[in-house]
């Protein structure tokens, strides 16, 4: 019987039992696909990450799976939490890399930047520059969210498919009350995402409860088995890119996005748009650890 250590972290927070929960399993190398599926389903979090260090590639390697048997990539909480764990545990994951650091996610090298803020390790992933792919009729999106098209009227913005690492639709919502009121219809959301070729829906409003936040958000991705995600780095990056392209925020400036309030896991996602990238960053805390058996 094989035993593997696992850790539970809360990501995009500096407080335990807040942020986005993530299971991380430390492996000696690749597992069988069925083992990834079974373990992710057993934990039941939106995503479970598996990590190991490759001497040949001089890189920490990460793979992530949902309980619905989907593998996910990108630089979201599944990636940042895995890198944070390695640093919190003192694993030497950047040995031989020089001044520029990276971690391999689903066979893609993602550049990372490590900083310290108030004694906390802050991990930033460099996502690609945001691309505006298409807009969607507000009426179609509103119906799938239990809202009216007029509820999505905010600064003349339309539901827009944006992509850095993963394509999601940015859905403007008039105010926080309507944001909280949204009640997604999973089947309708799946149909829209399939028809338009993207993954999740990132609802956002500039009507924020705390002035130091840029926006308050909610994220739904039923096609990947995610009812509501407490923090979504792969959507926060595209949203920052969209708002910068709309001249609502400035490049090379740090902003904070609030997510997860309604699911009692408030999360703080740091974003910065640069000429060539979107930086998404956050801190993580270890909540528990143990061992699993294969």
Written account of the structure:
- With 294 residues, this protein is α+β, with helices and mostly antiparallel strands.
- It folds into 2 domains: 3-128 and 282-293, Diaminopimelate Epimerase, Chain A, domain 1, CATH 3.10.310.10; 131-264, Diaminopimelate Epimerase, Chain A, domain 1, CATH 3.10.310.
- Helices cover 20% and strands 39% of the residues.
- It contains 6 helices and 18 strands.
- It has helices spanning 33-43, 77-88, 138-144, 176-181, 186-196, 233-245; strands at residues 3-11, 20-26, 48-54, 59-65, 71-72, 101-105, 108-117, 120-128, 131-135, 160-163, 167-172, 201-205, 215-221, 226-229, 255-259, 267-273, 277-282, 284-293.
- The longest helix is centred in the C-terminal third of the chain and has 13 residues, at 233-245.
- The radius of gyration is 18 Å and the shape is globular.
- The mean pLDDT is 96.
- It comes from Mucilaginibacter gossypiicola.
- One of its GO terms (molecular function) is isomerase activity.
């Amino acid at each position: 019987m094989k035993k593997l250590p696992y850790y539970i972290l809360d990501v995009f927070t500096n407080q335990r039992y807040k942020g986005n929960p993530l299971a991380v399993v430390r492996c000696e190398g690749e597992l069988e696909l069925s083992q990834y599926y079974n373990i992710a389903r057993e934990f039941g979090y939106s995503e479970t990450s598996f990590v190991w260090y490759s001497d040949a590639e001089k890189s920490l390697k990460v793979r992530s799976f949902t309980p619905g048997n989907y593998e996910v990539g990108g630089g979201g909480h599944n990636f940042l939490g895995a890198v944070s764990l390695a640093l919190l545990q003192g694993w030497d994951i950047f040995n031989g890399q020089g001044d520029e650091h990276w971690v391999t996610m689903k066979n893609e090298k993602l550049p990372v930047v490590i900083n310290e803020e108030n004694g906390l390790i802050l991990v930033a992933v460099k996502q690609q520059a945001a691309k505006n792919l298409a807009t969607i009729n507000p009426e179609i999106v509103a119906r799938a969210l239990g809202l009216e098209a007029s509820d999505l009227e905010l600064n003349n913005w339309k539901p827009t498919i944006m992509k850095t690492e993963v394509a999601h639709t940015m859905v403007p919502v008039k105010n926080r009350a309507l944001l909280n009121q949204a009640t997604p219809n999973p089947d309708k959301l799946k149909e829209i995402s399939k028809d338009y070729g993207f993954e999740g829906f990132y609802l956002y409003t500039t009507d924020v409860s705390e002035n130091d936040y840029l926006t308050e958000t909610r994220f739904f991705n039923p096609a990947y088995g995610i009812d509501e995600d407490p923090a979504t780095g792969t959507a926060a990056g595209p949203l920052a890119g969209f708002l910068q392209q709309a001249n609502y925020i400035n490049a090379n400036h740090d902003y904070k996005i609030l997510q997860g309030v309604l699911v009692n896991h408030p999360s703080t996602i740091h974003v910065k748009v640069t000429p060539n990238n979107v930086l998404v960053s956050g801190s993580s805390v270890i909540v528990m650890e143990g061992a699993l058996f294969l």
